[in-house]
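Practice problem: predict the structure.
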Amino acid sequence: MKHYSIFLPSYTIGTDAYEQMGAICRPYGTRAVVIGGTRAMEAAREELTAAAAKGGIRILDFVWFGGECSFQNVEALENNEKVQEAELLFAVGGGKATDTVKALGEKTGKTVFAFPTIASNCSPCTSVSIMYNEDGSFLRPWFFQKPPAHTFIHLGIISRAPKIYMWAGIGDTYAKYFEATVSSRGERLSHYVGLGVTISSMCLTPLLEYGAQALRDNEQQKVSPALEQTVLAIIVTTALTSILVTQDRIIDYNTGLAHAIYYALTSFPQIEKDHLHGEVVGYGTLILLLADGQKEMFESLLRFNRETGLPASLKDMGISREELPKIIEKTLTMKDIDHNPYPVTKEMLEQAFEELERRGTE
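Answer:
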């Protein structure tokens, strides 16, 4: 049997997470360049600078990542003098900034460390970058052998970030569980895919228990056990699931109907302009549950969405019911539903959307 290797993420979490920087990063080098979003770097600058000085790491510069995770921005960073001088690449910010630095690390062979400043997705712990064209349109995923060498999750910095990022991150995270379990249903899975699907339950359970409180704490800029559990689900658990279920470099178990609906809805300008990815995926998950006949879970998630303000109707996203046929038509063309355990039909979606419109607007 041919061998395979799996590389899982490691992380430090806490309000003093950066204090471990020297011990963890120094074996890879002492010259670092910080790359990220402008606001993110400002949010983390003081703590990063102090921890680097204490840990024997020299920060050469703070460099803006370019605003989009594109090959053009990666190339521009490759040509940056301070990047060329650095041994370590510190990715600071959200998903696009982190994905850009991971791609840069792959191109240059330099070691990447992630410092998320928001909890909106699992990019800091995954071994893939989502690449876009310069105009912001989706290009393709770029899979790597390994995730960042280590991820430093500073709960104090994340607690001070706008609540909207964690709010959207929750929607994208709980979708992972439902899509992984539905797409793998009835199959004999490899060890790593089966492990990923099993782990995915932790993308849901902590969020239902702690998510609403975490959002309230985030609004008060308060670090709490609920905030920690929610951040771990969004950044770490989702990444573990994603790495394991995409080990074969296929998306069969890493997507599903919720994401198909998301991509269908992005054809409406107001979705791209006014709504976040995880927010829309959270709505799509309610449709997935209705289409799949998971009535009890649908009721639980509908209550959760209402409590947290995640969408439960087309109106919540500024879409009229007259657009429903177009949404359904586009959803049925998406590759995300190719690996469903049963055919997703027009009639099935019509019933699910109508049911959600009835229940979601009560």
